[in-house]
C-alpha cells in the first residue's frame, strides 16, 4: 500500500476512534444533564404550586380544596403524606398510583429515578410549609421524553461529526498529498542516482525535514558525480604516470636485449631503468598510502603532540635541502600549543607541504604556528616562488594534479587526506611573499 493511503487510513481510523469515544462520553453526559435540567424545572414548578397552596390553603383541613386545585394542573404528581406514609392525591389513576407505590419507596427522598413497569421517571420533591404538616408534592416526568430529546441531540451531533469528519479527511488527503509528493519525487531522484544519471537529479521543493533530506540527496548526487569524475581522472592520470616509466624501461630493456646499444649506451640505459623503477616504486607506494589514508581509520593513532617539537622535526628534515638551495627559512611557533593527532602521519603531511615550498621557493620560506584559543590552532607554510596558477587552485589537492616542477602529483593529496582525517582542514591561497600559502586549521584540539 502506498504511503499516502497508509497515512490517510491511519488518520481516518484515529478520527473514527476519537469520534466514537467522544460520542459515547457526550451521549452519557447529555442524559445526566437533561435529567438534572428536568429535575430543576420540576422543582421550580413544584415550588410555585406549593407557594400558591401554602398561601391559599394553610391547613390539612383544606385537603379537598388542595386536591381540586392540583387536579386542574397538567402534571403528573403525587400529594404524599410523610406521617401516614400514604398518597393523599394524584393526577394519575388509582391503578397507576398503586403500581408506583408498590414498585418504589416513597419515603426515600434520595432516589431520583422511579420505576413503573418497563418505564422510568424523573422525580422532584417539594415540602409544604411548615414541614410539621408532613405533606410533600412529588412531580414526575417520563425518562422516555428526556431520551427523545437526547436522541435528537445525538442525531444532530452525528451530522456535525459527519460533516467535520468529511472536511478533516479531505484536509488530511491534501496535507498527506503535499507531504508524500516530495517523497515520491525524492524516490525518482534516487532511482536516477542508482542509474548514475546524476545530471538529471534536480532540487525538490519541500519544507521541513523533507527539504533537508532532499537537499542532502541533491548534494550527494553532486558529490558522487564529482567523485566518479575524479576517479576517471585519477585512472587516466595514473595510467599515464605509470605508463611513462614502463615504456621507458621497456624501450631500454628491448634495446639491450637486441644489442642495439653499445656498451656506453647500455650502461646509461641501465641507469635510466633503475631511476624509472625507483620513480615507479615511489608512485605505487604513494598510491597505496593514499588509498589507506582515505579508507582506513585504523591507521591513525591519535595522541597529544606538542606543536613546537613537531615543527622542530620538520626543520631538521628540510634544513639540508634549504641550505643546499641557499634559502632563508623562518619559523615561529606559539608556546604551549598542542595537537591531538597521529604524530607520524601529521609529520609526513607537513613535510610534504614544506618540501613543496622548498621546491618552488626563490629565496624565502615562512612556517608559522599560532593558537587563537585552546581549541583552535593554525599552521601556515608559505614561500616566495611563482605561486599556483589560478586554474589549478581548485584542483591542487586532487591526485596527480601537478604544478610546475611537481613530482608525482600525490604529495598534496596525501597531505590533504592526513589533515582531514585528523579533524583539520587545509586551504591554499596566494602568499604576500608572492608564492603559495598553505593554511592548515585544527579546531577542538588538545
TrEMBL record:
A Pfam family that the UniProt record links to this protein: HisKA
Domain HAMP residues, every copy: 177-229
SUPFAM superfamilies, A to Z: ATPase domain of HSP90 chaperone/DNA topoisomerase II/histidine kinase, Homodimeric domain of signal transducing histidine kinase
Gene3D superfamilies: 1.10.287.130, 6.10.340.10, Histidine kinase-like ATPase, C-terminal domain (3.30.565.10)
Subcellular location: Cell membrane
Enzyme class: transferase
Signal peptide stretch: none
PROSITE patterns named in the record: HAMP (PS50885), HIS_KIN (PS50109)
Membrane topology designation: Multi-pass membrane protein
EC number(s) recorded for this UniProt protein: 2.7.13.3
Membrane-spanning parts: 12-35, 157-175
GO MF annotations in UniProt: kinase activity
Primary location class: membrane
Keyword Kinase attributed: yes
Catalytic reactions on record: ATP + protein L-histidine = ADP + protein N-phospho-L-histidine
Annotated keywords: ATP-binding, Cell membrane, Kinase, Membrane, Nucleotide-binding, Phosphoprotein, Transferase, Transmembrane, Transmembrane helix, Two-component regulatory system
Domain spans labelled Histidine kinase: 237-446
Listed name of the protein: histidine kinase
Amino acid at each position: 500500500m502506498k504511503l499516502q493511503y497508509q497515512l490517510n487510513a491511519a488518520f481516518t481510523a484515529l478520527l473514527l476512534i476519537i469520534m466514537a469515544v467522544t460520542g459515547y462520553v457526550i451521549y452519557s453526559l447529555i442524559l445526566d444533564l437533561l435529567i438534572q435540567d428536568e429535575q430543576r424545572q420540576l422543582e421550580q414548578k413544584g415550588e410555585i404550586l406549593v407557594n400558591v397552596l401554602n398561601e391559599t390553603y394553610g391547613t390539612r383541613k383544606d385537603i379537598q380544596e388542595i386536591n381540586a386545585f392540583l387536579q386542574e394542573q397538567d402534571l403528573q404528581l403525587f400529594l404524599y403524606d410523610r406521617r401516614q406514609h400514604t398518597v393523599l392525591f394524584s393526577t394519575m389513576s388509582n391503578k397507576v398510583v398503586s403500581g408506583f407505590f408498590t414498585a418504589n419507596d416513597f419515603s426515600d427522598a434520595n432516589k431520583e429515578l422511579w420505576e413503573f413497569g418497563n418505564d422510568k421517571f424523573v422525580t422532584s420533591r417539594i415540602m409544604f410549609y411548615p414541614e410539621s404538616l408532613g405533606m410533600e408534592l412529588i412531580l414526575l416526568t417520563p425518562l422516555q421524553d428526556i431520551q427523545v430529546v437526547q436522541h435528537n441531540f445525538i442525531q444532530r451531533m452525528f451530522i456535525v461529526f459527519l460533516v467535520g469528519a468529511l472536511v478533516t479527511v479531505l484536509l488530511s488527503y491534501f496535507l498527506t498529498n503535499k507531504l508524500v509528493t516530495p517523497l515520491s519525487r525524492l524516490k525518482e531522484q534516487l532511482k536516477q542516482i542508482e542509474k548514475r544519471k546524476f545530471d538529471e537529479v534536480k532540487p525538490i521543493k519541500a519544507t521541513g525535514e523533507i527539504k533537508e533530506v532532499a537537499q542532502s540527496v541533491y548534494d550527494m548526487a553532486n558529490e558522487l558525480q564529482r567523485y566518479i569524475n575524479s576517479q576517471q581522472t585519477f585512472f587516466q592520470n595514473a595510467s599515464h604516470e605509470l605508463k611513462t616509466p614502463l615504456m621507458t624501461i621497456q624501450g631500454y630493456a628491448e634495446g639491450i636485449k637486441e644489442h642495439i646499444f653499445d656498451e656506453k649506451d647500455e650502461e646509461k640505459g641501465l641507469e635510466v631503468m633503475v631511476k624509472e623503477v625507483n620513480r615507479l616504486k615511489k608512485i605505487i607506494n604513494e598510491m597505496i598510502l593514499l588509498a589507506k589514508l582515505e579508507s582506513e581509520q585504523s591507521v591513525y593513532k591519535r595522541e597529544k603532540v606538542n606543536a613546537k617539537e613537531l615543527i622542530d622535526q620538520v626543520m631538521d628534515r628540510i634544513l639540508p635541502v634549504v641550505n643546499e638551495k641557499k634559502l632563508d627559512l623562518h619559523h615561529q611557533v606559539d608556546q604551549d600549543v598542542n595537537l591531538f593527532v597521529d604524530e607520524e602521519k601529521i609529520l609526513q603531511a607537513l613535510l610534504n607541504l614544506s618540501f613543496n615550498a622548498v621546491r618552488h621557493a626563490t629565496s624565502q620560506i615562512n612556517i608559522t604556528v599560532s593558537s587563537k584559543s585552546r581549541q583552535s590552532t593554525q599552521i601556515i607554510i608559505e614561500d616566495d616562488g611563482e605561486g599556483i596558477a589560478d586554474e589549478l587552485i581548485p584542483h591542487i589537492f586532487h591526485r596527480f594534479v601537478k604544478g610546475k616542477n611537481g613530482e608525482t602529483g600525490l604529495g598534496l593529496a596525501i597531505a590533504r587526506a592526513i589533515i582531514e582525517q585528523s579533524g583539520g582542514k587545509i586551504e591554499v591561497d596566494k602568499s604576500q611573499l608572492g608564492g603559495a600559502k598553505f593554511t592548515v586549521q585544527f579546531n577542538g584540539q588538545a
